[in-house]
Structure formats: structure tokens, C-alpha cells
Amino acid sequence: MARRCELTGKAVLTGNNVSHAHRKTRRRFLPNLCNVTLQSETLKKSVKLTVSASALRSVEHRGGLDGFLLKASDEGLSLKAKRLKRELKKAQAPEAQAS
Predict the structure, then answer these.
(1) Rounded to two decimals, what is the model's pTM?
(2) For the chain, how big is the Rg over CA atoms in Å?
(3) Hey, what's the signal peptide range on this chain (predicted)?
(4) Are residues 44 and 50 in contact, defined by beta-carbon separation less than 8 angstroms?
(5) Rounded CA gap, 44 and 29, in Å?
(6) Tens-digit pLDDT string for the chain (99 aa)
(7) CA geometry: angle at 50 spanning 46 and 55, to 5°?
(8) 32 - beta bridge partners?
(9) Is there a contact between 84 and 38 (Cβ–Cβ < 8 Å)?
(10) Are 4 and 81 in contact, with CB atoms under 8 Å apart?
């Protein structure tokens, strides 16, 4: 399993542990990932995603999974999230034509 957020693309970073004697050894900075189930209101289904804690706050701020995905660029999204975004756009197209 890749340690990568499915919504923002946030991944593992590398750096150095620096001791008091100033010796440098390599280390990894892991993202704070959570396995969550998010509800899509437009599609009326729930989706399991691996999301960073900061992305989860952004999802809540933008009004849920649907709002986040529609505003997000495709660059950071995982394949699963891109497919979900495509489904959302398809589902919202008939609503826009009906209005």
C-alpha cells in the first residue's frame, strides 16, 4: 500500500535526523493518513478512501466529498478519486439541463 493521500496526493517526504553531534542519518516523514468512509450526496453512496487528516478538514470545509472533488484538479487525485469525479460530473449534467 502506498502511503499517499487519495485526494491531495500528499506522500512520504525524506530528510535527516540530526544528532547533537550534528551527524545526519536519513529518515522518512510519513503523512497522517486515515482510512475513512465518505458519503457522496449526489451519487447516494459511500466511498472508502485513504485520506490525510488535512485533506479531511478540507473536505469538511468545502461542504463534503462532492464539493471537494468538483473543485479539485486531477493532478493530485488517485485513479479511484478521478473515476468518482467523472461519475459526479455525469450525474450533475442531467440536473443542469433540467433546470
Answers:
(1) 0.85
(2) 18
(3) none
(4) no
(5) 36
(6) 689 999 999 999 999 999 999 999 999 999 999 999 999 999 999 999 999 999 999 999 999 999 999 999 999 999 999 999 999 999 988 776 766
(7) 95
(8) none
(9) no
(10) no
In angstroms, the CA 4 to CA 49 distance is 11
At residue 99, the pLDDT reads: 62
The residue to which cell 479531511 is assigned: 56
Contact present, 47 and 69 (Cβ < 8 Å): no
**Residues paired with 17 in a beta bridge:** 25
At 11, which amino acid appears? A
DSSP string, 7-27: TT--B-EEEEEE-TT--EEEE
The predicted pLDDT at position 24 comes to 98
Q: Which set of grid coordinates corresponds to residue 63?
A: 461542504
Q: Are 51 and 5 in contact (CB under 8 A)?
A: yes
Count, residues in the chain: 99
